[in-house]
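Pasting as-is:
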Amino acid sequence: MKDLKYLFAYIVPGVIFLSLYLRGSWVFLAIGVLFGLIPALEQFMPGTEDNFSPSQEERKKNRWIFDILLYLNVPVQYGLLFYFLYLFRTPLTPGEMAGMILSMGIACGSLGINVAHELGHRPRKFEQRMSQALLLTSLYLHFFIEHNRGHHKYVATPLDPATARKGESLYAFWMRSIRDGYYSAWNLEKQRLQKLRQPVVSWANQMLRFQIIQIGFLVVIGLCFGFIPLLAFLGAALVGILELETVNYLEHYGLLRKEIKTGVYERVLPRHSWNTNRTLGRIMLYELTRHSDHHYLASRKYQILRHFDESPQLPQGYPGMMVLAMFPPLWFRVMHRQLEKIAS
């Protein structure tokens, strides 16, 4: 029965659906629950540092229920998206439009990109295809290339677009990470094709295919639902992207690996990612908050990620820290104090 705790993650699509369905002032329900109520509850639920024993890990590693709970996010996400697009063909007030776009954007970031992140690290092709299907709902397919082949290699170094520098505001980070991450994905794919001695401008270029797929997806939405729903989708996709990049911002803020020699860095260790064991955030985000172990061994499935005593700990769960990051002076005051603690 303990394995079923991850059913709690479906509170996210649940409150998003209610936000869309109830309309009126209820369109802001998802924001209130996920970024108001959840951080408040996490103040009283510090979580646990316990890890599974090796035998428990082995039993849980391949238990089918954990995979099914991930896979179900694909039809749920697409169901929410099509319902969202349908609603934008009906009369809506400006406030309803704004709330619905924000709510759907949360789905794009949480159900879409976050679950895609977990599936994208899996070796099986069908799981990688599901990852790409989810990323498509945020028009962020290049994440599949940049995250796996770029971020995990260069994390906690100046070479990584997704590692926030000490003193860098969230808003400056958004611009740099989105821009440089996109360029990095093109360069990584170019390097891969050059090693294979294949032409860069060809169907073998995954980045090129991704752009065509995304344009095709937009055309289908425009033809099937119309111009206003298309614009609403673009807004929701942007919200999802910014949600992802906000998570990126707090996961490695101010942490750097030692440079052994020019361009060569020490191995990624648990101390190079911020962690939090807050229970609700861990479950809702499929253990993304135990990020140190994910970077230490990216192939580990979410249900067996471990706590490390040497991992720096965030003072609040991910939802609360995402809200704090919106206010740079407060963020710097809190996080620079944390950086001083781990440096001492």
